[in-house]
TrEMBL record:
It is found in: Mitochondrion membrane. GO terms for biological process: mitochondrial citrate transmembrane transport. Solcar repeats lie at residues 7-90, 101-187, 230-313. It comes from Amanita thiersii Skay4041. Pfam families: Mito_carr. Keywords: Membrane, Mitochondrion, Repeat, Transmembrane, Transmembrane helix, Transport. This is Mitochondrial carrier.
């Protein structure tokens, strides 16, 4: 059997970037609420954050820092898909097929690439802009001004805080997400007796959403890397309860480490985790769970649906 036709890198890059931008814009309010709820100070429920933001700043307020995430997410998704296709082609057999273990490796490599080139800097800038937006008089006038100010004040290291745990997280996320999506897609196409044919967008959205959910819960043990030793037992127990605490704990720590006051309050991620644990209690690590899960489910469906349709239009194959 002849090898399958290789995906063109520009097709993957363009389709992935477009899908990432659309997903970021549509789901951004959930990201805004999640990030706001994870900052230090008084704990606010998601609905309270939405109500207060709409009251004081209108709908525009829910999109504070959105440009940074849209650009970052577009870059991230573009890098993710083009890297995945590259690694997948390198790991394919003589017939162009990729086994599940090799798909996991391809996804792992893709996730690490996106962490380095897009996720870490864009998330850091987004977090600082959201943190700044809650001040009576924000110091940053927008994405460009905010980015240049951060680099001037903290250097390039200021936008690369937490790189290693982000690489581990994104590598695991992409490995599981791509493998789950590809496996489910092939299964549905096989049972529907339509191998190689384009699935309806509704089915693609559903498969992508399921892949997002599977990613959350199967990567929990790996997230223990970014949690302090004092929280180890909590991480261990959560793996058996099915809770999202481990993944979310690292998210809370990451948000705190990327906030405006991080340099003066925390020595490193472990110190940050220790302070949250001892000063605010274990439950603080659960803040923002609902909006985070909402976004993960929606993002999986949106990204793969948009990507598949663009690839179909421009003549590619899809993941």
């Amino acid at each position: 059997m002849a090898p399958k036709e290789k995906e063109k890198p520009l097709h993957s890059l363009f389709a992935g970037a477009t899908a990432g931008a659309v997903e970021a814009f549509v789901t951004y309010p959930t990201e805004f609420v999640k990030t706001r709820s994870q900052f230090g100070g008084k704990k606010e429920p998601p609905l309270t954050i939405i109500r207060d933001t709409l009251k004081t700043k209108g709908v525009k307020g829910l999109y504070s820092g959105c440009t940074a995430l849209v650009i970052g997410n577009a870059t991230k998704a573009g890098v993710r898909f083009v890297s995945y296709d590259h690694f997948k082609q390198k790991l394919a057999d003589s017939e162009g097929k990729v086994s599940a273990p090799r798909s996991l490796l391809a996804g792992l490599g893709a996730g690490m690439m996106e962490a380095i080139f897009a996720v870490t800097p864009s998330e850091t800038i987004k977090t600082k802009l959201i943190d700044d937006s809650k001040r009576p008089v924000p110091q940053y006038r927008g994405l460009i001004h905010g980015t240049t100010s951060i680099v001037k004040q903290e250097g390039l290291s200021g936008i690369y805080r937490g790189l290693f745990p982000v690489m581990m997280r994104q590598g695991a996320n992409s490995a599981i997400r791509f493998t789950t999506y590809t496996t489910l897609k092939q299964f549905v196409q096989g049972t529907a007796a339509r191998p190689g044919q384009q699935l309806p967008s509704a089915i693609t959205f559903g498969i992508g959403a399921i892949a997002g959910l599977v990613t959350v819960y199967t990567t929990m043990p790996l997230e223990c890397v970014s949690i302090s030793y004092n929280l180890f037992e909590l991480c261990y127990l959560s793996a058996f309860t099915g809770a999202d605490v481990v993944t979310h704990a690292s998210s809370v720590i990451k948000t705190r480490m990327q906030s405006l006051e991080a340099r003066t309050q925390y020595r490193n991620s472990f110190h940050c985790a220790y302070r949250i644990f001892t000063e605010e209690g274990v439950l603080r690590f659960w803040t923002g769970t609902t909006p985070r899960l909402t976004r993960l489910v929606l993002s999986g469906g949106i990204v793969f649906t948009v990507y598949e349709n663009i690839i179909r239009i421009i003549g590619g194959r899809g993941p």
